[in-house]
From TrEMBL:
Family: Belongs to the universal stress protein A family.
InterPro entries registered for this protein in UniProt: Rossmann-like_a/b/a_fold, Universal_stress_UspA, UspA
Domain UspA: 1-146
CDD domains: USP-like
Protein name: Universal stress protein
Source organism (scientific name): Kordia algicida OT-1
UniProt superkingdom: Bacteria
Pfam family, one: Usp
Length: 280
């Protein structure tokens, strides 16, 4: 059984992410764990005294959280009646990142699916603060679904790489599975201002080629100094349905999403985005 954690704040955006996940894995046996975390503002005040009023507030928030999760489960099960899927609910008084870390250590999930925007719905924001924290710290694959994105089968997958990763089977497992489910083609994109790869880069490219040998794939080289623009342009021209990247520390992934150019690619990233930790 695949174990998929789906954090929700009960927004339409998070509901949309759940809809995408159950459709993506419609033919696979899955446990979906619906997670809602809640913390009242007073929880963040140092040296607080917890009185009867605060306990009453916590009880009310807990009840609202549990009822919200029940409503989401009922909505999804009514829309997608799938005997392959089992739903569980976790309502937790905790910060989201801390709860996800705890659940990972307890082997509750092997994948996370989240909506990219919170309830604020600001169009210019690529990731809400929760998503940024989870992206940076997640120890398992994370699939981010853009607000309002309707499910499409991922027939064209874009996998940008600087070939500075020593590829392992664990890095490409999930891509292999999705590609085999949907008879997808994987487009490996290398953006560089030079024609030549280093000896190490060539070796890593060969490794990747071996892992993808049974899957339809193409290697692309684009000459450009601006990696975000090159990725966005390739994505739009090639009708890409899914963007996949490895999150390896001190890599171009970090520069791309946590550097000064984050807004630039954020304007173009309107497809699901799968992030795989390099230590997977």
């Amino acid at each position: 059984m695949k174990k998929i954690l789906v954090p929700t704040d009960f927004s339409e955006n998070s509901l949309n992410a759940i809809r995408y996940a159950v459709q993506l894995f419609k033919n696979e046996s899955c446990n979906f764990i619906l997670l809602n975390t809640y913390t009242p503002v007073i929880y963040h005040v140092e040296h607080m005294e917890v009185g009867a009023a605060q306990y009453g507030l916590l009880d009310a928030m807990k009840e609202a959280s549990q009822k919200g999760l029940e409503k989401i489960q009922e909505t999804i099960e009514a829309e997608f009646q799938n005997p392959n899927h089992i739903f569980y609910k976790i309502s937790s008084f905790n910060m989201l990142v801390s709860e996800i870390d705890k659940l990972y250590e307890e082997n509750v999930m092997d994948m996370i699916v989240m909506g990219t925007q919170g309830a604020s719905g600001l169009k210019e924001v690529l990731f809400g603060s929760n998503m940024i924290h989870v992206l940076k710290t997640a120890k398992c694959p994370l699939l981010a679904i853009p607000s309002g994105f309707s499910f499409e089968e991922p027939h064209e997958i874009l996998f940008p790489s600087d070939y500075n990763v020593d590829f392992k089977e664990s890095h490409v497992n999930i891509i292999q599975k999705l590609a085999s489910f949907y008879h997808s083609r994987i487009n490996v994109l290398h953006v560089s201002n030079t024609d030549k790869l280093t000896t190490t880069q060539k070796m890593h490219q060969k490794q990747l080629e071996v892992f993808l040998k049974d899957i339809s794939h193409l290697f692309h080289l684009v000459h450009d100094d601006d990696i975000p623009s090159a990725i966005a342009e390739f994505q739009s021209k090639s009708r890409i349905n899914l963007l996949v990247m490895l999150n390896n520390k001190h890599s171009f992934f970090e520069n791309l999403f946590f550097g000064s150019k984050v807004k630039k690619i954020g304007l173009h990233l309107n497809i699901p985005f799968l992030v795989i930790p390099a230590k997977a």
